[in-house]
């Protein structure tokens, strides 16, 4: 058994630990950390900084770029020539995976499910980009009763029988996605330090890999910051259980003596609304407010719902004027075009 190292550890040591995993270069880092003073004034609240992971530089950017640097790092190390993944038709993950595969010379297959009526059959937003970048797309209709996950596994088997070396990101290697957001936390802490700002909160549209990486990094380095997670779907309790699983596995892989309890996790499903991919009124208002005060675009599926939470907290006094808040912008902006019917009144 490998001896586990006690936390907290320093940031340099933390970086050394994540640096041991294979990684491919896909994005531009560090991403900017921009202050949003006009937005902050508009919500009458704390100082707000936006960590621009919407600007990772890979085909319109987003949080999957960091994750894919590790996930596809592993795929390349294992000699994969084909990547299969799947999600909703407007998936940012699938768009960034397609871009990464184009860049790395890997074949990519996407099994996508429509979650809403799409603009009269015209491919828009992320789905259009998948096409342009050469993904092999299988599209499942909304009411089609098929098991998407099983379709991915069946396709993998079929392609393996043809002699392909197939890799399915996030399948067994979710801890790598978590690790990529430990890096983001370290990067953000350095940027805050340079600005002489002590942040006490990070708001993020995730109760998953991104959230778990931030929490892990905070626990590992002892930074006095709370991460507040706003998932785009599902129930908070389930998300918390998944995060604990990811944190435990990541601690194991990094040989750190680290764990988190349910009570330490702040994840709320209060802003999900009617479900995944269905914009909320508050989310649309948040998107427009940030766009009109700072010229920064959010997305209708994830970040706008998290920002709706931040705005409520600022206006209710839950966040105080003396607080310093980082909003981690996880991307997703190409989806605005696929939601023109609800966003453009
Ligand atoms: C995928 C995605 C998230 C959630 O990321 P996790 O990996 O599940 O934490 C948040 N925001 C956007 C824009 C995304 O595309």
Helix content: 40-55%
* CA radius of gyration: 20 Å
**Spatial strand sequence of the major β-sheet:** 2-3-12-8-9-11
Assign the structural class, choosing from mainly alpha, mainly beta, alpha/beta, alpha+beta, or little secondary structure. Answer: alpha/beta
The total of helices stands at: 13
Number of DSSP strand runs: 12
What oligomeric state is this? single chain
End-to-end separation: 61 Å
The major beta sheet can be summarized as:
6 strands, mixed
Ligands (ions, cofactors included): pyridoxal-5'-phosphate
List low-pLDDT spans.
none
Which shape, going by the Cα principal axes?
Answer: globular
- Report mean pLDDT, rounded to a whole number: 96
Question: Beta fraction of the residues?
Answer: 5-15%
Written account of the structure:
This protein has 345 residues and is of the alpha/beta class. The protein has 13 helices and twelve strands. It has helices spanning 11-18, 37-42, 64-77, 92-104, 125-132, 148-161, 174-195, 209-221, 236-254, 281-294, 303-316, 335-338, 340-343, and strands spanning 5-6, 33-35, 47-52, 82-88, 107-113, 136-140, 166-167, 201-204, 226-229, 256-257, 266-267, 324-329. The N and C termini lie far apart (61 Å). The mean pLDDT is 96.
